[in-house]
Amino acid sequence: MTSKTIDQLLKEKQKFEALFNFATLGIVIANSRGEITLVNQHAETIFGYEPEELKGKKVEVLIPMGKQHAHQANREHYTEQPQVRPMGYGRDLKALRKDGSELPVEISLSYFHTDEGLFVIAFILDITARKQSEAILIQQKAELETITREIKLLNSNLEEEVERRTEALRQTLNQLEASRKELQDALKREKQLGELKSRFVTMASHEFKTPLATIITSATLIGKYQKTEDQVHREKHLKRISDTVLNLSNLLNEFLSIGKLEEGKINPKPELFFLPDQMKEIVSEMQSQAGDGKQIRIEMPDVGEVHLDKELIRYVMLNLLSNAIKFSPPASTITVRAFRKDKVLCIEVQDQGIGISRKDQEHLFERFFRGRNADNIQGTGLGLHIVERYVTLMEGEIKIQSELNKGTIISLLFENK
């Protein structure tokens, strides 16, 4: 194995470890004997353990006292008949920290097989904040009921002050209604975010199984090819690992972007930059991934500096080009063009792919939506939703022209500044 190949393998391994450790959900992987083999940093933080401290321990160390024996029986039954168990509401689950304290959690289970046997993945969500919000709502509801009873009693005993008390009551109820609406809006946002995370975990449970098994299997096989003449086999498995890690990276990046968007943490930072230079860099990067004789062409007459968020534009273009490559036939041409018309800057990505039906176009930018003719092509249904949100944040507009089996043109329109 050449030093360059080893360096590439190490870089890909480091990239996967970074994605695993920086996930915003706790992830614990255990073997069929219930021994913890891998834990990410978020899970170690949740449970209060030092790095590598949980490795090798039984998963029951994370189960509250008094429930460990029952959990062991359930775990052994699960390994006999493994199945994906998505997160769900209505079940009060508790986990045990190192210091002996307990915390409320939601847990989703998945599994995968390798040469070493069955491995179980637990995705763990700390719902302490949600439980606190629910407790606050219950307390405020009780306070509201108390206030209402007191107001009724005052009105019955002080009829001569009905007019003044009515006005005071009106003001109090207005304040309570405003407070109630704020709480409802906050809980609605929390519920939407929880549903998004739960839906992602269900999807990730499916999407993670095969890639993880592929990485582990390929890494194991590489070690068996030690002769010089085995270089072709080593390169094949290294490419499988690289492609798989790239897919996992895109999956996690989409989820992280959705999380930041929902929490309002993404604020555009416009700057002046030379658009053709950036587009050439992006096209060069994506051309190497195109394969099958696909070519990406740039058409940018009379387009120079633009005032936009450079990083958001980069994400948008990478996503649109990735889709164009994914849905285009071999030996086809994908065109990236930009031009100014009146006071509008237009950036377009055109492909000769499978196209999008008119009915599907109505829902194209919704979260998790996928066209009916794309069911057999890998994807999460998050990319175009994120693209549309980013374009809107930059005060732009996105339009689509498409016809089944004749290709698609996606246009980004920005006020020419």
Give a concise summary.
The chain is built from 10 helices and 12 strands. With 417 residues, the protein is of the alpha+beta class.
Model description:
The protein is α+β, with helices and mostly antiparallel strands and 417 residues long. It has three domains: 3-128 and 192-262, PAS domain (Beta-Lactamase), CATH 3.30.450.20; 130-181; 271-415, Histidine kinase-like ATPase, C-terminal domain (Heat Shock Protein 90, 2-Layer Sandwich). 51% of the residues lie in helices and 20% in strands. The chain contains ten helices and twelve strands. The chain has helices spanning 3-21, 41-47, 68-80, 128-157, 162-224, 231-262, 275-290, 310-326, 358-361, 383-393, and strands at 26-31, 36-39, 93-96, 102-114, 117-126, 271-274, 295-299, 305-308, 333-341, 344-351, 397-403, 407-415. A five-stranded antiparallel β-sheet has the order 2-1-5-4-3. It has a five-stranded mixed β-sheet with strand order 7-9-10-12-11, with helices on one face. β3 and β4 (102-114) form a beta hairpin. α4 (128-157) packs antiparallel against α5 and α5 runs antiparallel to α6. The radius of gyration is 27 Å and the shape is flat. The two termini are 53 Å apart.
Poorly predicted regions? none
Shape by Cα distribution: flat
What pattern of helices and strands is seen along the backbone?
HEEHHEEEHHHEHEEHEEHHEE
Biggest sheet, in brief? 5 strands, antiparallel
Order of strands, widest sheet = 2-1-5-4-3
- CATH architectural category of the largest domain: 2-Layer Sandwich
* Total beta strands: 12
On the 0 to 100 scale, the average pLDDT is 80
Helical/strand content category: alpha+beta
Rg over alpha carbons: 27 Å
Total DSSP helices: 10
Which CATH first-tier class of the largest domain would you pick? Alpha Beta
Q: Kindly report the name of the CATH homologous superfamily of the largest domain.
A: PAS domain
CATH topology of the largest domain: Beta-Lactamase
Q: How many distinct domains?
A: 3
Distance between the amino and carboxyl termini:
53 Å
- Helix percentage: 40-55%
Content of β-strand: 15-25%
